[in-house]
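Weekly modeling sync, notes
Attendees: AB, CL, MP (scribe)

Item 1: holo prediction request
CL wants a bound-state model with L-MYO-inositol-1-phosphate before deciding which constructs to order. AB pointed out that an apo prediction alone won't tell us much about the pocket. Agreed to run with the ligand included and paste results into these notes for async review.

Input as submitted:
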Amino acid sequence: MKDKLIEIIKEAGVILKDGYYSKKDVSFKAKKDLVTKYDVAVENFLKEKFEKEFSDFNVIAEESDNTNKVFSNSIIVDPIDGTTNFVNKLPHTAISVGVYKNKKPFIGIVYNPILDELYTAVVGEGAFCNGEKIEVSDENDFQKSLLSTGFPYTSGTCEDDLNDVIEKIKKILPKCQDIRRLGSAALDLCYVARGVYEGYYEMNLKAWDVSAGLIILQEAGGKVSNIDGNEYVLFENKYIVASNNKIHNELIKNLNQ
Ligand code: LIP
């Protein structure tokens, strides 16, 4: 299944790449939440191919889902993760596809066709970037850890969420090396997987933002949880917290202090 998925995702990457270098009309799903015709075109392409090739799976995709529910066999698709970057020609944008069998993680693929980075993982077989094995960083000193986060679209409309973002940064920033915000949750998780960041956290994400990246990260030796340190459940938890495993407890402790 993995090879067929990669073949289809690479074809979809051509649509994303063409769009990236073209002039784009932008629509708003919400105050800060953008969408373009390319999000829809990549999604339609992937949905049609996946439904034909993998008829035992439900395809759940960002621009057409209205259930917010994972079925027992699901292919969860974000056609363009990092749409704001895509629109502004910041090359941190990717197609994300997570496959869940009997509700359990099975295959994760994140493809950035602009930088030509293909992250892949099958549960039990390790994680790879362009075919090279990747592993999380060895750093266990929180003060030396580079972290990443994201700001929820709701920070423009919900004061509680905005305050929460600020509070968390106030708690974490003095204690770590630094914090980045690059704008694609799928790639943030892959960057923890390949040892660029030691940790990552974000609120209000949907299953399509993280379904593939969390499989890739766990296969690279990392850890994913909710903000209490317990299992992260797609579509259910407000926060996702991810790390190289070594700093996880401290990251959780500092986020909650
Ligand atoms: C986006 C994320 C980004 C996050 C946004 C949003 P989209 O996904 O990956 O990191 O901060 O809230 O969810 O909307 O570009 O697919």
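Recorded for review: The chain has two domains: 2-134, 142-255.
Action items: CL to compare against the apo run; MP to circulate these notes.
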